[in-house]
Amino acid sequence: MTEHIQYSPDKDALVLLDQRYLPNREEWFECRTTDDICFALVVMVVRGAPAIGVTAAYGCYLAGREVQGMDGDWKANLNAKLDQIEKARPTAVNLRWAVREMRRVWQEAGDVSLDALLTVWLARAREIHEDDIAMCEAIGRFGGALMDDGDTIMTHCNAGALATAGYGTALGVVRGAVDQGKKVSVIANETRPFLQGARLTAYELHKDGIPVKVACDNACALLMKRGLVDKVVVGADRIAANGDAVNKIGTFGVAIMAQRFGIPFYVAAPVYTIDPETPTGDDVPIEDRDPREVTHIGDHRIPPEGVEVYNLAFDPTPNELITGIITEKGVLYPPYTEAIRKLFDK
Ligand code: MRU
């Protein structure tokens, strides 16, 4: 797949494949300022936890470029812009991680000029970008080994190349299985209301020639009951210290159904998605998004005028429903509090 996050030195811009319009149109969105970056994150030109992190890292660099042209104390101006980026979306820990990482690099660089900081930051953003692809490929190798030839894998939302720098986490597991010579196919849950499954997961798997069928979110139980699902693999926006995994709204329900039908339920995510500062999934801030995403299909309003809706974007899946957490360092199994503690002690 085309790289959907590209830093262009010629344009001095971060160029993003605009995911709002996929699969119908491949349009590119250019970010030059902090406001552009925050807009792209909030309206989901770019989305998916690791892709958000990579975008935020380049965003810090672009914020520095913007500050170069501003009056006043550059350090204070820059810090205010970093705060703005960090707050763009609350749930994916990767956003906070990326901004903190850039602050750490700044601190480590000491009393440097803004020009010198920008050189170091651009290099670090590029490294974060490249590392993400390598981490996804490692997740794919570990996860691919857990899949069996002939499996049909259900996934929810899009945890694919479009949600990362490339290759994907949950879809990285699918790609890993394919790379290991296994014939697997995917059921992509539609994933209301932004339709990451119907639009994005279907788009990228179809493009790669991996068999994919889209199902309504509410078909899950019947498909499982009919024996049409062998494994579930999903991504995560944040994994708490006890292994509870927060992912796209609806994931919790899929996990409950998978347990009901004895289907293995895996979460695939890089280690930095695990947040040891957050004790349980219930402690993770859940993004409450624009109601219009639920009320409208295109310009057409579905519920009667005046009726309110919920648009909570994520839910925590309790650790006891998770068969394994597939990371780039290997697969974690219950009890997760212990497995995660050991991982971080290393
Ligand atoms: O609101 P989104 O589209 O950013 O939500 C994305 C998800 O929930 C993904 O499953 C998660 O970020 C993992 S991406 C590898």
From TrEMBL:
Enzyme Commission number(s) from the entry: 5.3.1.23
Annotated GO biological process: L-methionine salvage from methylthioadenosine
Keyword Amino-acid biosynthesis attributed: yes
Positions annotated as active site in the UniProt record: 237
Pathway entry: Amino-acid biosynthesis; L-methionine biosynthesis via salvage pathway; L-methionine from S-methyl-5-thio-alpha-D-ribose 1-phosphate: step 1/6
Record GO terms (molecular function): S-methyl-5-thioribose-1-phosphate isomerase activity; translation initiation factor activity
Top-rank taxon: Bacteria
Alphabetic keyword roster: Amino-acid biosynthesis, Initiation factor, Isomerase, Methionine biosynthesis, Protein biosynthesis
Sites annotated Transition state stabilizer: 157
Catalytic activity reported: 5-(methylsulfanyl)-alpha-D-ribose 1-phosphate = 5-(methylsulfanyl)-D-ribulose 1-phosphate
Binding annotation for substrate: 47-49, 89, 196, 247-248
Family annotation (HAMAP family): Salvage_MtnA
Function recorded in the entry: Catalyzes the interconversion of methylthioribose-1-phosphate (MTR-1-P) into methylthioribulose-1-phosphate (MTRu-1-P).
Protein family according to the UniProt entry: Belongs to the EIF-2B alpha/beta/delta subunits family. MtnA subfamily.
Identification of the protein by name: Methylthioribose-1-phosphate isomerase
Organism: Pseudodesulfovibrio aespoeensis (strain ATCC 700646 / DSM 10631 / Aspo-2) (Desulfovibrio aespoeensis)
